[in-house]
Amino acid sequence: MREVREEISQIQSVVLHSQQQDGSWRFCLESSPTTDAHMIILLRTLGIDDERLIDGLTARITALQQENGAWKLYPDEAEGNLSTTVDCYYALLLSRRYEKKEPRMARARAFIRGKGGLSEANLLTKFAAALAGQYKWPAHFLVPVEIALLPPSSPISFYDFVGYARVHLAPMMIVADRKYVNVTADTPDLSDLYVNPSIAPGVYPHRLLERFTRDGQSFLSSIHEYVLRLPFLPGLLHELSLRRLEQFILARVEADGTLYNYSTSTFFMIFALLARGYSLRDPLIAKAMSGLRDSVCQTAEGAHLQLATSAVWDTALLSHALQQSGLPASHPAIQRANRYLLKKTATYVRRLENSQSGRGSWRLGLFGLQYDESGYRRHDSGLARSTQPVPPG
């Protein structure tokens, strides 16, 4: 037992020495290379020649490639992930560091085609390909933009989607409605990733279209009936819907320029702004890119764009773990962590979006938030435990 206590004491010391002055713990939130691919796509699309960053991003992407040519969405995925592999294949070509004839690219291409090709990739990957003119936009997106005009009190509302979904869906609805395409001199030809033609399913698999055709008619009818009652011509309604979605996005831009502090939603936000007529050098887009750059961390493999920053999660979990290991709640490090977490919770409560939606009721619960300087985030189950003393035994 003495050796166990000594080891615990050493770990406690390491953790305590890594605490920040504001009471938080901050570590790199490592995830799949999809976000790294997104960053390369944005840099090339916007004409930002940050070759050092691209070097770091491509280093991590290539380091994570498997022997079979695939990339994984999560470490213990069996063979690899089709969509992640498409994203990485596209980004490596776009980076100007690799050509299709190279062995690693040939292995990736064989894996993609062996899994059914680009037509079988997920929705986000097809959107990224469609934005580059490498996939056919569907005639209509599953969620019509007019849903943005429905009030929260209606039977069906945009606010029926959870917050995380809304901030991704809003920019995706705009680019899909506009069928926006941005092709540059660096845009690679991805036609060799097709096994079946892309025109048949659009951005959706057949099975999703069939299910929606069967089950979604009442959904579309409800929207149509409400919109017809609005005192506007159809063309004006459509533009008003797009403007409402744009306003929804801009109202949720964080102090660092990102959309809700997620790199994935920020990726689609930038393309949505371009689709709405913003210039490549617009201050909003420049600020978003600055926020994404600040979210890049260095890993053993190379540079990595975090999906989101995790300071609040890290702080809540480590504070709880330290107390479980025997550190008293009165310890200065625990008190500093508590103050940091409670400050973030107070900010979250002041800006709690659901309290403004008019849908149902809410009460203060257990919060775990993502970090940003202005910041509010999701609810989770870690914070309340971390700010209370751990009972003995």
What does this structure look like?
This is Squalene cyclase N-terminal domain-containing protein. Pathway: Secondary metabolite biosynthesis; hopanoid biosynthesis. InterPro entries: SQ_cyclase_N, Squalene_cyclase, Terpenoid_cyclase/PrenylTrfase. Residues 8-299 form the Squalene cyclase N-terminal domain. This protein is mostly helical and 393 residues long. The protein has 2 domains: 2-27 and 310-386, no CATH class; 34-305, Glycosyltransferase, CATH 1.50.10.20. Helix content is 49%, strand content 2%. The chain contains 15 helices and 2 strands. It is globular and about 70 Å long. The two termini are 17 Å apart.
Topology:
Blueprint: H1 2-17, H2 34-45, H3 51-63, H4 82-94, H5 103-114, H6 123-131, H7 163-178, H8 206-215, H9 217-228, H10 234-250, H11 263-275, H12 283-294, E1 296-298, E2 303-305, H13 311-324, H14 332-350, H15 383-386
Antiparallel strand pairs: 1-2
Helix pairs in contact: 2-3, 2-4, 2-11, 4-5, 4-6, 7-10, 7-11, 13-14
